[in-house]
Amino acid sequence: MTSTPPLNDAVRAALEAAVRVPSPHNTQPWRFETGRDGVEVFLDRQRVLDVVDPDGREARLACGAAIFNLRLTLAVTGWASEVSLLPDRCLPDHLATVRLTWRHQPGARERELARAIGHRRSNRRPFTERPVPRSARESLIEAARVEGAELALLEHPGDLDAVAALVRRAERVQSEDPDFQAELRAWTVNGGPRDDGVPLLAGGPRPAPGSLLTPRQYDAHAPERPYEGEVLVGVLGSGTDTPLAHLRSGLALQRVLLTGTTLGLSASFLAQPVELPDTRAALRGLLGGRTHPQTVLRFGYGFSAPATRRRPVDAVTRPRESL
Ligand SMILES: Cc1cc2nc3c(=O)[nH]c(=O)nc-3n(C[C@H](O)[C@H](O)[C@H](O)COP(=O)(O)O)c2cc1C
């Protein structure tokens, strides 16, 4: 395979899509190297959050999501690819090799998911009270399953209340932790030229008293508003809790989010209870101990939410040095 212009175009389109995925505090913890026949994906250790993500688990979720977008975009530009996760046991930050294999005729579903990439965003605003129908719930669950993860939707009020209580507990612990707050402030952006971090405008309102959910607060002065009473929350989990499982969960995360986007659903994260060891263990217990929680998502029908910025592809990509 030669590095012809069409191949370069496909790789560039795939990288543009890869960087659109969600990442904790919009840290964008990835690096890419391009070679003659594909892309190498690396964890950027300097962008792993020390306080909230000391093991890099959430950063690997984000990179797994980026790998999903890479694979999907290559497919819709006419290339099948072979993805090998953690290809080198001696290099744990070398997360994936994505190798273009043969020409591929994209299907309608691939095109639909790929079209959703630019429309997906974290929508932290209150959603409407319109319930998410059963068929959409099943599609979200199936999206996680296809990638080898599990999405447990909390359909029983008792489960939802218990998880909401864990979110509240974790949110309180984090909001009282000066190190957590300092890190959050460092990644919250109020205008200016930065192309990473979470813009204040993308934060949600503070929940009015009586709201079940306690989203992460990026702006202590945000107005107070009630969140939806018709709440749909899901816990994305994996059978093991290894770096490989984190990457696979990231692929599943992105398939779930894009599937939701194609169904007109908005989503946001409530990751707080997964970020602290004791609330994470309690969450695992609530799910019957069968799955390791990787993140918590909220789904619903929302109004528009702003897009956040990304570092340009050229700032995170370099050609692979030939050996
Ligand atoms: C693993 C993970 C955990 C996250 N946790 C939270 C969270 O607890 N609260 C929140 O509001 N956003 C959370 N986010 C969303 C990011 O802040 C968001 O993806 C980033 O700011 C980029 O914005 P976008 O998703 O709209 O593109 C999380 C994202 C990831 C990948």
UniProtKB/TrEMBL annotation:
Q: What is the lineage of its organism?
A: Bacteria, Bacillati, Actinomycetota, Actinomycetes, Pseudonocardiales
The name under which this protein is listed is: Nitroreductase family protein
The record's listing under InterPro entries reads:
Nitroreductase-like, Nitroreductase/BluB
Source species, domain of life: Bacteria
* GO MF term set: oxidoreductase activity
